[in-house]
Amino acid sequence: TAKQYQHDDRCCNRCEPGLKLLSDCTASQNSVCEPCEERHFQSGWTREKHCTPHKSCDHNAGLETRSRGDAKHNAECQCQQGMYCSSPDCQTCLNITACRPGEGVARKADNLSDTTCEPCKHGTFSSISSASEPCRPWTSCESLGLVLKVPGTNRLDVACGKCQAVSIPRRGIGLPWPHAVPARGAAAGPPLTSPSPTWQGPERLDPVEIVVLAPPQQPAAVGCEEHDERQDFPVQETLLGRQPVAQEDGKESRISEQERL
């Protein structure tokens, strides 16, 4: 049987795990066994007179001790951090591969296998070399209330930024005050200048209407440029002799005495 062996036409008992054979059985006694010496083991029933030495985990080969072992079990080795076994019996170790920028980790390395890398798909990126990081999705600028400034690649994330509407300045159309042109057939009068409290014109001018035009509605330009914060003033259009003449922003207008009446 598995627990016995034949010796000199006798059936002798094998030594149990953790022991080794000291002497075979005789007509007057059974087999004699003794424990394995230190750092040796015997894992099964045996008739061997020597135990097996524990495995040595060679640090220079990239190995370290995982389990020290005992009289019944062998020692176990594993690769050091950042390494993996080069073969199933793990006699030596190799460095774990780090995935390059533009690639992500599909499966991390373990004690018996290397890292598995995969290219980053559209919409994902990896900007570092890593043995543990997968491809990351691009940042969603919209979810942050921002706009896309620079598109992403398989190596770089997108760049987001703030966006402000651009206001287009509105300007008056026509000749600035006081260079008004009198209507055809109107009597020529003195130059139109800014009035003073004591000035009295010697002649009457044609009645003048002053019409305040609302600023034209213009859509904000699409873009992400600096906002022009200059205020937009309404444009006054002066009708001199029923002919429109534009009033410059910020200038005082002067109407005839007949209009005042």
How would you concisely characterize the structure shown here?
2% of the residues lie in helices and 28% in strands. It is mainly beta.
CATH topology of the largest domain: Tumor Necrosis Factor Receptor, subunit A, domain 2
Order of helices and strands: EEEEEEEEEEEEEEEEEEEH
Q: If helices are DSSP runs of H or I spanning 4 or more residues, what is the number of helices? A: 1
The total number of structural domains is 4
How many distinct beta strands?
A: 19
The protein's oligomeric status is single chain
Termini distance? 138 Å
Output the CATH class name of the largest domain.
Answer: Mainly Beta
Structural class: mainly beta
CATH architecture of the largest domain: Ribbon
> What is the strand content?
25-35%
Name of the CATH homologous superfamily of the largest domain = Tumor Necrosis Factor Receptor, subunit A, domain 2
Could you outline the blueprint of secondary structure elements for this entry?
Blueprint: E1 4-7, E2 10-13, E3 19-23, E4 32-35, E5 40-41, E6 52-53, E7 63-67, E8 76-79, E9 83-85, E10 93-95, E11 103-107, E12 116-119, E13 124-125, E14 136-137, E15 147-150, E16 159-161, E17 208-213, E18 235-240, E19 243-247, H1 257-260
Antiparallel strand pairs: 1-2, 3-4, 5-6, 7-8, 9-10, 11-12, 13-14, 15-16, 17-18, 18-19
Membrane topology: Single-pass type I membrane protein
InterPro entries: TNFR/NGFR_Cys_rich_reg (IPR001368), TNFR_5 (IPR020435), TNFRSF5 (IPR052135)
Protein name: Tumor necrosis factor receptor superfamily member 5
